[in-house]
Amino acid sequence: MARTRRLGLLLALLLPVVGASMPSTVVRLNKAMLSYVSESGKAPLQRAMQVTVPHFLDRSGEVLRPTRVQILNVQVLRLQLKFVDGVGVRLFAAANFTIKVFRVPEPLELILPAVLQADARVDQGSIGTPVVSISSCFSLFNKAIVLDGGHSAPPELLVRVQKHIRAVLYNKLCLSVSNLVQGLNVHLGTLIGLKPVGPESQIRYFMVSKPNITEDYISLDINAVLFLLGKPIVLPVDATPFMLPEHVGTNGAMATVGLSQDMFDSALLLLQKAGSLNMDITGQLKSDDNLLNTSVLGQIIPEVARQFPEPMPVVLKVRLGGTPVATLHTNNATLRLQPFVEVLASASNSAFHSLFSLDVAVNLSLQLSVSKVKLQGTTSVLGDVKLTVASSNVGFIDTDQIHALLGNVFEKPLLDHLNALLGMGVALPNVVNLHYVTPEVFVHKGYVVISSGLFYQN
Q1: What residues contact 4, with CB distance under 8 A and at least 6 apart?
Q2: C-alpha span between 449 and 431 (Å, rounded)
Q3: 340-346 and 352-371: which strand pairing?
Q4: pLDDT tens digits, 344-395
Q5: How many CB atoms lie within 10 A of CB 364?
Q6: Are residues 327 and 449 in the same domain?
Q7: pTM
Q8: In this predicted structure, what is the pLDDT of residue 449?
Q9: Residue 218 belongs to what H/E stretch?
Q10: Pairing status of strand 69-84 against strand 325-329
């Protein structure tokens, strides 16, 4: 399985299954990725080519002798991969086989140079994963080089030995490559599953159409479906097909990942439906700098002082009724929250008494980053937090005074809570043991692009 995983980097992005039809994500694997796979794929290809050779029937003597033949070593001198327009990937490998013929009385060792070429077709599987198959394969062999000590072997023996080995390798080498591809498909099949987003939410990716293959890249149209308690999150309006522009991101990146506005809208809708953005803000009653108590509120709201002559704790109950809105502009991502805040005071019988409620509007700057396989975010407040009194059980409330008192008390816990949530991240398309390395994130109008290297870790 380890050898298939390395070669599996060719299509090593997570692509599982759910019923939908339009892409919200586009993944392009570029030529730079093929160079990385070519280098890291030599070792598993060498192991795959270390095949068993059946005994050679030595007819040089009076008695027909079965003679053991063993491949001692395979050295892949060159492995090259390139995209084939409309097909998939072409593999070209040049290798030397060190072979030992256990001939009596003197064994024979030789090196057989060979080249192997195979075309791997990439299609869309019925379950939403890429399926790779070998559409053509052939191998060619040069004249064997006899190592020291074997020059005394009769020339006709060398001809027969080489013919035997070539006949075996001609079939087995292509079969080995085919087995690698089958192992790759099994590996990709294990990618079908849910990636956790939160305690009760997951994300799943799957292909929605056949890959687009050019001489420069393979592009996969992928949809991402977010689930809450096993039910998919569906946007209230029909999503629009996402098309990633041709030239975006960083030149020379192994992978280019495009995330549409719909992807962000779905993630924010999930947070809202899950109640993840709801929170309670409290303060320590005995703390000298605690502003969340009735004594402080009573200084600007007389009715609070009248109802609570003794200092009592105050709680800000923050609830997000509306869905957060992310806006993507060139080099600029913002997030708008409109929470409803209820201000409650603890009564002497430990019950909570509603004092007043506020409609709040917060504009946030959204900074995006990638860590291993997760898209993460951090926020900071843009401009001023806007507070409007929605209802009051304590008479008239001066909005400016409440803003001055509660603005900072509300702002920091909200940012801490929100950044903790966004810091958990959402898994990008990925395969087990594959990480994004040195990623760069670019914000465009209506979509986000991630340009990244890839690193496969056994």
Answers
A1: 44, 180, 183, 184, 186, 187
A2: 19
A3: antiparallel
A4: 998 777 788 999 999 999 999 999 999 989 999 999 999 888 999 999 999 9
A5: 23
A6: yes
A7: 0.85
A8: 97
A9: strand 217-228
A10: unpaired
Cis peptide upstream of residue 439 (ω within 30 degrees of 0): no
Domain interval for residue 366: 233-456
> Which segments of 18-69 does DSSP mark as H helices, in order?
31-40, 42-48
CA distance 389 to 356: 8
- In a domain, residue 137? The reply is yes
CB 109 within 8 A of CB 118: no
Q: What is the Cα–Cα distance from 452 to 429, expressed in whole angstroms?
A: 13
Under 8 Å between Cβ of 391 and 357: yes
Report, as an integer, the average pLDDT of 304-328: 90
Contact 18, 225 (CB under 8 A): yes
Check pLDDT > 70 for residue 151. no
Residue with tokens 């502009």: 329
Nearest to 452 by CA among 40, 34, 30, 24: 30
C-alpha torsion sign, points 106, 107, 109, 114? positive
Only one residue has tokens 């005394």, namely: 152
Residue closest to 357 by CA, chosen among 344, 371, 370: 344
Cα–Cα nearest to 24, from 223, 283, 218: 223
| Angle ∠(89,91,93) on CA atoms, nearest 5 | 170
Residue keyed to tokens 């390798």:
169
Residue 285 has pLDDT above 80, yes or no: no
Contact between residue 297 and residue 285 where contact means Cβ atoms under 8 Å apart: no
Domain assignment present for residue 23? The answer is: no
Does some domain include residue 367?
yes
Same domain (yes/no): 177, 268: no
